[in-house]
Design a protein that fits this description.
This protein has 543 residues and is an alpha+beta fold. It has three domains: 1-43; 48-318, Beta-galactosidase, Chain A, domain 5, CATH 2.70.98; 329-542, no CATH class. It is 41% helix and 25% strand. The protein is built from 13 helices and 20 strands. The strands form four sheets. The chain has a nine-stranded antiparallel sheet, covered by helices on one side. The chain has a five-stranded antiparallel sheet with strand order 7-12-19-18-15. Strands 3-4-5-6 form a four-stranded antiparallel sheet, with no helix packed on it. A hairpin with a 2-residue loop joins strand 8 and strand 9 (150-155). Helix 1 (2-43) packs parallel to helix 12 and helix 11 (460-475) packs parallel to helix 13 (509-542). The chain starts with a helix and ends with a helix. The relative contact order is 0.09.
Length: 543
């Protein structure tokens, strides 16, 4: 008993220490960082920041395939905005005088966790064309806006032309075309680069680089993006963003680029400040009198599955849905269909949870019945264990008698596990869809929950979920399987439920709402199963 309580006290102490020494310092550091960034932005406008970035030079060696990439940016004394491109209703991206795209703003979405409504903004550090060939770079640096989303430049016989245009009727999609002619030396590369960074926003809205290379989807996230890498092969697309907003490049035309990721050396490594470059790198090739044309489509917008699918079907892979992504996308479709009826994603989540519980009602009943049978024969199992003790020589005989007991009592020891395993893809799919759905961004439910994609500000849902888990444990058959000297599993589960509740305090409210409703419905199911089992035993005894 003392050992059990020691384990419980140790776990609770660990949670308190984690909150005091990790979570709180992190949040304080993040708040201070945001204040610093805001002060810097007030002192320096985006134009000056872009000019500083354009004057940097980074050299990175791709040792894996012995291909070097010298990142040389445009040397611009002054940048000014020449056009604002529409990305859809209340969304736009700025087009600067040298052809750089910067500051994609979503005025219909706001940053979460702030009292004031600050529009979401991505592509802060720009997306621009550069070259490691000095002459070509000089030509790109001379690009001037000619109107109609067209730029042209010239240097020592080299002519360069850059054009943007609406790629289709799909909002947020533009095509980029860079033409080069008159090149005398074809050493080096030309690339379309995006400066990016980690550490911004909610720490659970992780950022990730997804890409499809040679027909296979892969990704880079965390510190992996700060390692110099060059991916060669047929690049179908790449996506850089968080769970909800992204910049997607889709190469097309005669030339296909390598995807190069390089850290920017010599910068502060403080969280949220360290930057790196994502470059779509094309080798310069001698085509005689022909003009080299590098083409790509560009999507800047939300990770809305229906929108991505309308652009290109395989772009749905850019939305992280976990292990069972197909199930997650189906669950999200069901949620959207239910929302057409309820007009509120909170009530739609509740309705979807009820439907899932009803579908699995027969399986859950089998789980309960199997657990109940195991509990009923537990005294006989304990008697066999006492009979043979810990003598390893007699373990084989013990196993044979236990299997015979299972057969006589018609009990399957795996009967409570297999139905649960069959349900796991659905539950994991629901978890993935509710954790990553743009539909829940800023979607209100009731009272204090104003954003189903953000954590519960008063932790009501995590507390209710913990309570529901403890209540469910009370109504679930718990056969005693503890070995001498081992901790009481019921007490261990009791502590684990508190651990789950503690972890859930930073999960999206929509996900917590699903967990709460599912747990209470599960408890209600267990109550009904238990009551029906009691009534059945009463009838049998009376008969």
């Amino acid at each position: 008993m003392k050992r059990n309580w020691s384990i419980i006290i140790a776990l609770i102490a660990l949670l308190i220490a984690y909150d005091l020494f990790i979570l709180r310092p992190y949040n304080q550091k993040l708040a201070a960082q945001k204040q610093t960034e805001k002060a810097v932005e007030q002192k320096s406008d985006t134009t000056n920041n872009l000019s500083a970035i354009q004057n940097e030079t980074t050299k990175a060696e791709a040792s894996s395939d012995n291909v070097s990439m010298n990142v040389v940016t445009n040397e611009i004394n002054e940048l000014k905005e020449v056009e604002t491109l529409s990305l859809g209703s209340k969304r736009q991206v700025r087009l600067m005088s040298n052809g750089t795209l910067v500051n994609a703003t979503f005025n219909d979405y706001f940053q979460r966790g702030t009292a004031e409504k600050i529009p979401v903004e991505i592509l802060k550090d720009g997306l621009s064309w550069s070259s490691t060939n000095p002459a070509v770079q000089k030509c790109l640096s001379s690009l001037n806006y000619k109107g109609n989303l067209t730029f042209s430049g010239r240097f020592e016989g080299i002519t360069c032309s850059l054009q943007y245009q609406q790629a289709s009727e799909q909002e947020g999609v533009y095509s980029s075309s860079l033409s080069l002619s008159g090149i005398k030396s074809f050493e080096g590369t030309v690339f379309w680069q995006q400066v990016a960074r980690l550490g911004e926003g909610n720490r659970f809205d992780f950022k990730i680089l997804d890409f499809k290379l040679d027909g296979e989807t892969d990704d880079l996230q965390g510190d992996k993006v700060f390692e110099t890498k060059v991916f060669k092969g047929k690049l179908d697309w790449s996506s850089w963003g968080d769970k909800y907003f992204t910049t997607i490049v889709l190469p097309k035309g005669k030339f296909n680029p390598d995807l190069a990721v390089t850290p920017i050396d010599g910068e502060a490594v403080a969280e949220g400040q360290r930057r790196f470059r994502i470059a779509y790198q094309y080798p310069l090739v001698d085509l005689g009198e022909q003009t080299m044309v590098f083409e790509s489509d560009l999507y800047i917008g939300t990770k809305d599955i229906s929108v991505l699918k309308s652009i290109r079907k395989d772009l749905v892979d850019a939305v992280e849905m976990g292990w069972f992504s197909a199930v997650g996308r189906f669950m999200l479709w069901c949620l959207e269909e239910l929302n057409l009826l309820f007009k509120n994603f909170g009530w739609s989540i509740i309705a979807l949870t009820v439907l899932v519980r009803l579908v699995f009602w027969p399986l859950n009943r089998k789980v309960f019945e199997s657990g109940q049978k195991m509990k009923d024969i537990q005294p006989k199992i304990e008697a066999l264990r006492k009979k043979y003790g810990k003598d390893r020589a007699q373990m084989e005989q013990l196993n044979r008698e236990m299997m015979g007991l299972y057969k006589t009592e018609k009990v399957n020891p795996m009967g409570s596990c297999m139905p649960l395993l069959l349900q796991m893809p659905i539950f994991i799919g629901l978890y993935g869809s509710l954790s990553n759905a743009i539909d829940l961004y800023q979607a209100p439910f009731v009272w204090w929950i104003e954003d189903l994609s953000y954590k519960d500000p008063f932790y009501v849902l995590p507390i209710l979920w913990t309570a529901s888990l403890l209540l469910m444990m009370k109504f679930t058959p718990q056969p005693t399987m503890n070995q001498p000297g081992m901790p009481d599993m019921k007490k261990v589960m009791f502590v684990m439920y508190f651990v789950f509740g503690f972890m859930a305090k930073d999960w999206p409210s929509g996900l917590c709402l699903y967990l709460v409703v599912s747990s209470f419905l599960g408890t209600f199911q267990q109550f009904l199963f238990r009551r029906s089992q009691t009534n059945l035993q009463t009838v049998q005894e009376g008969a």
